[in-house]
Amino acid sequence: MNKTKLVNLPSDYQIPERDSDKTPILEARHLGIDFGGLTAVDNFNMAIGRTEIAGLIGPNGAGKTTVFNLLTKVYQPTRGTILLDSKDTAGMNTEQVNRAGIARTFQNIRLFDKLTVEENVKVGLHNSTLYNMFDGILRTPRYWSKEKVAHERALELLSIFDMQGMANQKAGSLPYGAQRRLEIVRALGTNPSLLLLDEPAAGMNPSETAELMDNIQKIRDTFMIAIMLIEHDMSLVMNICEGIAVLNYGKIIAKGTPEEIQANPAVIEAYLGKQKEDE
Ligand SMILES: Nc1ncnc2c1ncn2[C@@H]1O[C@H](COP(=O)(O)OP(=O)(O)OP(=O)(O)O)[C@@H](O)[C@H]1O
Ligand SMILES: [Mg+2]
Questions:
Q1: Quick check: pTM over 0.70?
Q2: Domains of the chain
Q3: Closest CA to 14 of 254, 266, 273
């Protein structure tokens, strides 16, 4: 189990001790959203350290994906504040938040099936390797030099998951596990400082999940970025997450280290209660 020590910030949020000399990469304060009469997320408070692997868990329908949708401005919050690198993201749209440093993957795979693996990664590189339409249509020297940089960068990113050999295959023809890995690579192409992964291990077999676990840590160690993941696979969450928040019916019912979360009666109740309902 992960044994990182968490420390309290003056604002009363916790981040890993290792990151405590810098402001958190993300701070959500009293975040909430209503859909008509339904309060999907309420009073969501959380800080994430600059190099933290954070977890967001909870039963189905608890509001986890909605939190990601709020952080990435798929939905504008009804209440609360999101600080990214100490800057308020109020009024920003999805693309602006992406440029400011948040990248994500989706619970359901969203790739361009008919494009190749390499082309899918290049779509994500827009932040760092822009050439204009004029260069593109006329195939100017600037286009070719940018194109070469993009090609090399795409292969470099693919090599994290040992996928450079699949660069010319159509994304839609890849096995499921490889498609999920490709989504992560594509997200990394936007140079995020915070990577959000929505159920990255869903549908993976145990050996793929173990490999994914290693790779998530490798991504953090290589890029020194923060990662927040939603996941139902508890072995993955407890092994690699440092700070964990538990959502139930849109509210955080527990926060802490993996050890604290596993010993928390409210968490056990939320999961066991759910199991009983399912029976
Ligand atoms: N656009 C929307 N309009 C109305 N209700 C929504 C919308 N998006 C989400 N909800 C509702 O908000 C609640 C939380 O959904 P959400 O998808 O965030 O749950 P989750 O924790 O990600 O669940 P799962 O583990 O099944 O993915 C659910 O009741 C859902 O039906
Ligand atoms: Mg979800």
A1: yes
A2: 6-101+192-272 (3.40.50.300), 111-177 (no CATH)
A3: 254
